[in-house]
Amino acid sequence: MEILRELKKLALFKGCPDQDIARMKNCFKAEITSYEKGEVIINQSSDANRVYLIVKGEANVEHEDMFGNISIILNLKAGDFFGLEEAYADKNTYKDALVSAEKAIVASFDRQKIISPCSNNCPCHIMLAKDMMKMISARSLALTDKIKHLSQRGIKDKVLSYLETQSRIAGSSYFEIPFNKTELANYLAVERSALSTVLGKLKKEGVIDFDKKRYHIKAKNQEE
Amino acid sequence: MEILRELKKLALFKGCPDQDIARMKNCFKAEITSYEKGEVIINQSSDANRVYLIVKGEANVEHEDMFGNISIILNLKAGDFFGLEEAYADKNTYKDALVSAEKAIVASFDRQKIISPCSNNCPCHIMLAKDMMKMISARSLALTDKIKHLSQRGIKDKVLSYLETQSRIAGSSYFEIPFNKTELANYLAVERSALSTVLGKLKKEGVIDFDKKRYHIKAKNQEE
DNA sequence: GAAGTTTTGTTGTTTTTGCAACAAAAAGGG
DNA sequence: CCCTTTTTGTTGCAAAAACAACAAAACTTC
């Protein structure tokens, strides 16, 4: 089964023997679905009775506000979960939507099975609990990062704050981000055209360079 | 001991017999300290080897960016933790500071003891693990809420988004927020004087009313 | 490779925000 | 109760962002 190969690539199942993964899939009532780019995986405000694992590809957590503006809260990659917080915090609706950002494979699990101790005594389940904790914590920190960016005054500072973080994560001044310009504007909650202008200016000033989704931070601290 | 009375008020220790709390305090190498308003409890970027529990009072999680601007990430109340995410995600420095927002009592625990299973077989420790999970999840959701506010274009929408959330949490159109105007500006990452102008306008328009930290949302959806 | 779609860049206008400086009001401390 | 400090409101100006509308470029799809 092809899915098994994908699952084994994830840090979550690292070192799990095949038959254990199979048993867990059964135990968690796993369902696996493929999505095309742009497909809505979960609708905002729908009932939160499952948790979702990105097995392959990427998906965005999106929020639509009362005026119809859509903002990208987070970008999820293979191995990331959606809906875990709702499960553990006992919320019964998702507050955001999950939208496929490219061709993606997504597994979903029964929420109750995930959060309660396993009666079948699955070998990897205890380890899993700790991984969950780590994952939720990491997400919390990622959200804090995003707040850091959004808290910057002005588009220029927002985008630089974001790019610096991405650069740090990539470990290089050359890096690729998961967003095109429109999506980046949504992520940073600014007007797309205004962002375009600012990016153009930063490029002209020689602070950064970019092409498509690839960016390069040229000067570190030689501004003003 | 007075502290014990405070601890027992927290949801975390609800139903725990006194001697168990005492044992856990010992097991987690607990230390308890009092702080005056404005005192820094934890410095940004300092070593993350303990986790902190607000026992009484309030404290703000604050972040100082590269330009020296300070923004309030979150407001923590009695029962809330600081540093849990770093512990579980295995980060060795705090990325934000913790500052007392009023006279407060804070307990701190050894990070390792909190995240590893207890060898002493403390009676409440298993329950505690689940509470931790719930707490981190709740924080994650709170951060998402904040992102929702920050993603609004314009101060007016930001502040209304925030106030509506606070109103929903309080379950009434009359409610009190934990911030004064300066702090609210920091939380929403906008200029204080601009916020003041916008609030004044909203009051004049009859959309909201406020006095000190008490607010009232008058009209639901009759704007423009 | 032509036609349509999506993404990106550009520009001008309007509105909002940031900034700075000040004054009034409220809170806190002896 | 007076003095000091903190909080809040106000205003004018400069800067920045939102908005709208359009054009060019890139990417699809047949």
| Assembly type | homodimer
**Superfamily (CATH H level) name of the largest domain in chain A:** Jelly Rolls
Question: What is the correct CATH architecture of the largest domain in chain A?
Answer: Sandwich
Q: Most extensive interface, residues per chain?
A: A-B, 39 and 39 residues
Low-confidence segments of chain A, given as residue ranges, are: none
Query: What is the CATH topology of the largest domain in chain A?
Result: Jelly Rolls
Strand order of the largest sheet of chain A: 1-8-3-6
- Specify the helix fraction band of chain A: 40-55%
How many helices of chain A? The count is 8
- What is the CATH class designation of the largest domain in chain A? Mainly Beta
Which series of helices and strands of chain A comes N to C?
A: HHEEEEEEHEEHHHEHHEE
Hey, roughly how much beta strand do the residues of chain A contain? 15-25%
Global outline of chain A: elongated
Give the domain tally of chain A: 2
Helix/strand structural class of chain A: alpha+beta
Biggest sheet of chain A, open or closed, and with what strands and sense? 4 strands, antiparallel
Please provide the count of β strands of chain A: 11
N-to-C CA distance of chain A: 57 Å
Mean pLDDT of chain A: 87
Radius of gyration of chain A: 19 Å
